[in-house]
Design a protein that fits this description.
With about 375 residues, the chain is α+β, with helices and mostly antiparallel strands. It has 3 domains: about 80 residues, Rossmann fold; about 60 residues, Dna Ligase, domain 1; about 180 residues, 2-Layer Sandwich (D-amino Acid Aminotransferase, Chain A, domain 1). It is about 30% helix and about 25% strand. The protein contains 12 helices and 18 strands. The strands form 3 sheets. Strands 10, 11, 12, 13, 14, 15, 16, 17 and 18 form a 9-stranded antiparallel beta sheet that branches. The protein has a 5-stranded parallel beta sheet with strand order 3-2-1-4-5, sandwiched between helices. A hairpin with a 2-residue loop joins β12 and β13. The longest helix is centred in the middle third of the chain and has 14 residues. Bound molecules: adenosine monophosphate. The site of adenosine monophosphate (AMP) has 13 residues, from β15.
């Protein structure tokens, strides 16, 4: 009998993990505030708001993981006194606090933008003077998809930036990175220490939200070894088990780390169809203590997010080779409610498919002029 895996969170990432687990005869349970969450279609959801919810969740599975990096550490502490959980607490703690995360990157020799901790108006002024403008001011905890951030371009914005973010508590000021593009690397480490890495994804954002990813990132062969080295350092140091994501800026001086996510990631959704073994299946394999699958690319892929509003399904399915994943979520502005993976044969087909998709999708697709694959 295979293990049951309990997952903190019941969103689309949990769904796609459970979908990958099913053919391996592995069941998933979920811990979410809403028993009506997307993952409810794939396994039992234990309400995190219920009086004995955490204990019921702990009783519901053999081994545990997460799809939500803000999983409360207090819950993890209760759980790990009784059962095993992957990834490790220390990875989660670092990912939940940008200052701890940057200290970890520094310790492991992973380049980051110069930064300073900010906890008062005076320390913000000092950071602006020391780092030089522009700087990006971020909340140390709780931010996602560009929320909890202020780009400070001139000194007369300092008071406004402090008024907006100061009440959020601990902050970090970092130099504005003049990057040419944003990429991410996803890797998985098994319980036996085996590490496998997917190729870099090139990520395009619209209003701070991932719009689409191209994999392998064009012209990234020279960047892949450094990215692989950085994420392997993190995996080994943290004694990590499961999938880890590292978001990076590409600069003239090489790669510069932005942040990590101790989980499967939106920029890895392409791997469901585009890789021999997807990020979801490999995460499940790692958590269950099974051998990892190949991360080799079957076909170069473009993953496009459906944001806010669903397109006509038939229109998308009519596109050659399009794979559609809908998350069973209510439409809401700025919300990721599905994604589409395209697997074009060449750059010309990529451009044609993306142009056609841009006509079909209600949300804007931030297309660049010179798309290549
Ligand atoms: P984050 O929440 O840290 O992932 O930041 C969201 C987005 O803001 C990133 O994907 C970048 O586009 C941008 N950004 C974050 N930090 C910086 C920085 N130091 N310099 C320039 N752009 C940044």
């Amino acid at each position: 009998m295979n293990k049951t895996i309990g997952i903190f969170g019941g969103g689309q990432l949990g769904c796609m993990m459970a979908q990958a687990a099913l053919p391996l005869n592995i069941q998933c349970t979920f811990f979410d505030a809403s028993t009506d969450c997307p993952s409810a279609a794939l396994g039992p959801v234990i309400a995190s708001t219920a009086e004995h919810g955490l204990q019921d969740f702990i009783g519901s599975a053999d081994v545990f993981s997460l799809e939500f990096e803000n999983t409360p550490l207090a819950d993890v502490d209760v759980l790990t006194q009784q059962k095993e959980m992957h990834p490790p607490r220390q990875a989660l703690a670092a990912a939940q606090n940008r200052l701890q995360e940057k200290a970890l990157f520094d310790e492991l020799g992973i380049p980051v933008a110069p930064y300073q901790a900010v906890n008062s108006l005076d320390s913000l002024k000092a950071a602006a003077a020391a780092l030089g403008l522009p700087i990006v001011l971020k909340t140390a905890t709780g931010g996602y998809d560009g929320k909890g951030q202020f780009v400070l371009r001139s000194e007369d914005q300092i008071n406004q930036a402090w008024a907006e973010l100061g009440p959020a508590g601990s902050l970090v000021a970092e130099s504005f990175v003049a990057f040419s593009r944003e990429v991410s690397i996803i890797a998985v480490r098994g319980q036996d220490g085996d590490v496998k890495t997917w190729p870099l994804a090139e990520n395009h954002h619209h209003n701070g939200i991932l719009s689409h990813s191209i994999v392998p990132a064009p012209n990234s062969a020279a960047l892949q070894p450094a990215a692989q080295d950085y994420i392997t350092r993190l995996l080994q140091h943290l004694d990590y088990v499961g999938v880890l994501t590292l978001e990076l800026f590409v600069t003239d001086a090489g790669l510069c780390a932005n942040e990590m996510a101790p989980r499967v990631h939106n920029s890895g959704h392409w791997s469901i169809e585009g890789a021999v073994c997807s990020q979801f299946e490999n995460h499940i394999r790692a958590v269950a203590g099974l051998p990892l699958g190949s991360t080799e690319v079957v076909r170069p892929s473009v993953m496009v997010n459906i944001i806010g509003q669903y397109p006509q399904l038939a229109d998308v399915l009519a596109l050659n080779g399009a794979h559609v994943h809908l998350y069973n979520k209510v439409e809401r502005e700025g919300r990721k409610i599905g994604h589409i993976t395209l697997m074009p044969n060449d750059s010309a087909e990529l451009t044609a498919l993306c142009r056609a998709l841009a006509e079909i999708l209600p949300n804007p697709l931030a297309l660049s002029e010179d798309m290549s694959i």
